[in-house]
Amino acid sequence: MSAAIKYAPRYTIVVCGAVPSRHLEQAPALIAEILSPSTRQNDLTYKRELCASRKVGTYLIVDPDTKTVEQLSLGKDGGYETVAVSSRLTFTLCGACEIEIGVESLFSD
Q1: pLDDT in tens, 35-65
Q2: In terms of C-beta density within 10 A (0-12 exposed, 13-18 middle, 19 or more buried), how is residue 2 classed?
Q3: What pTM value is reported for the model?
Q4: Domains of the chain (ranges plus CATH)?
Q5: Strands (E), the chain
Q6: Record's Pfam families (predicted)?
């Protein structure tokens, strides 16, 4: 199984399967949102709800000010459930791809 990674200034999207030629035709497996002062409230409310409604499996909220990450996984009820994060993020994408990331590495210079 392959995954395509697209980078943007304030977020990263991971889509499982073939790289789309023009636009996404399925929900991303993961979106990592980088909070900024100007969009913080929108990211924590509207975008979170939007990602859940579009069935994005894992939504990471990365806060560079506090150097923390909130990991949300789509629950059976269609809403997000918070996953406890310590020093490492661990999640499975696309049913078989297990990813582990050190939280500190996200904030290193």
Answers
A1: 888 888 998 999 999 999 999 999 999 998 8
A2: exposed
A3: 0.80
A4: 3-107 (3.90.1570.10)
A5: 3-7, 11-16, 30-34, 58-63, 68-74, 80-83, 88-93, 97-102
A6: Uma2
